[in-house]
Predict the 3D structure of the following.
Amino acid sequence: MNNEVAGFSKLSKEEKINWIANEYFANPSEAVATIKQYWNNDAKLQQLHDEFIENTISNFYLPMGIAPNFLINGKYYSVPMVIEESSVVAAAAKSAKFWSTRGGFKATVLNTEKIGQVHIMFKGNTAKLEQFFTLIKPNLIASTESITKNMQKRGGGITSLELRNKTSELENYFQLHATFETKDSMGANFINSCLEQLAKTLKEEAQNYSDFNETEKEITVVMSILSNYVPNCIVRAEVSCKVEELAENLPAGKQGKIRNPQEFAEKFVQAVCIAEIEPFRAVTHNKGIMNGVDSLVLATGNDFRAVEAGVHAYASRNGQYSSLSHAKIEDGIFTFWMEIPLALGTVGGLTSLHPLVKMALEILGKPSAQELMQIAAVTGLAQNFAALRSLTTTGIQEGHMKMHINNILNQFQTTAEERKIIKTHFENNSISHASVVEFIETLRK
């Protein structure tokens, strides 16, 4: 079997599918049927999806759920979440309901600055380069006017531009370090277009600068690109209440009921402190936060890979990877909070193209970018609270496996009658993948 192919991108969609089916599957017709099973019946909608990326053969569906009852800054939200992991939506909804009766979530955008850099190599006199930059800086910014004029009308644009000397870390290396305000747009294309124009103008101006010798005139632009590390694009999310208000008025046997609020609060704070000082715990701790954040970022057509990269860099900003969230008990008040970098948009990209993205934004009340940042941070904090609550009370697996059991039952293609018997059995028995499989096998004997 030869899996090399020439001109794959030039093949029609049908030809691509047939090549994949014949090259990699023992039953090509079955493979083709599976691929086409996930096509949208609406040809126009399917074409829209096909054109999001290249070499499309099908759609890969993820479930879209809703976590209601999020009270944020005095306003209720139902949060759309796109994720494949069981128990995440349920946990978010449970946290939202819990805090809705305790004052809800408070969220504040602390800053919205975004960053882009032109990375250059300059072999010459540093003082001359600095003088040159000071002289041409107005020209650099003016050269981007055609790109920035519409953004400026909305109150955005380039907010600062500086030359940074990085030669102590890499020989001959300098940066044009620019900051941006992109309002309701995530702004990636806008920032990159500005940076490429800055780089072009820089090279042109260098050629005409009389104080440079021939070597100095040949400034090398290595690359011009935005940064997904946005340590000054920060949103804070927080919940707080009196410690005694953490107690729950629930039936005695209710799973995870907080019976002793002082003990729960102290243990909860200890769990967060462990994540602050232990990277092995912090990674999983923050992953739980991102379960909530990423689910909303995906649902609203934003770039979850950019968000993930920036968030984890931020978690390492003090030299060791650490918890994004923090907790304390002070004067009888329990406070749980988080500050997180989020560069999100509500215009551009998929926000006006993907029908479900448009629906998600409608469900959220057509939020501004700053409002979406707040909702995303709150969703992450809610998810973190739910995970820590489970970990410090009943343990994470009891609730998680009760949600996960459906995946196991689907894997073994259980009938409706079998499902009823199995779920009844595990209402009062410990759930694990092995125990469920064993019970299925026993039942079928």
Notes: The mean pLDDT is 93.
